[in-house]
Specification:
elongated, 6 helices, mainly alpha
Amino acid sequence: RVALDRGMRESAARSAALGKRQMQIDVTESLSTADWQEAIACLVAMQLQSLQADIRVHNAVISACRRSTKWAEALACFEDVPDKDRTEVTATTLLGCLGDAGLWQDVLH
């Protein structure tokens, strides 16, 4: 009985982990065409459900902000990402967003 209970708990934990991972994949895919409001709402919803958004989700949100010329929102999302998790894609997407807004000189300072 103890082994069965432990096995069921482990199985439930694996299912929950797979469900969270699938949600991140689904979110990232849907954000590829989302507008900035949908993207930010999705990120907030993940946080409210205690789901850790990975760097791909943050990159997708920053990209959605860039498509909508929302540089301040893109910068806020970028700043929410720990330095150790930022990638070249994260930085170049933000720089592109700021460049599109004519703020590239400010980035250099």
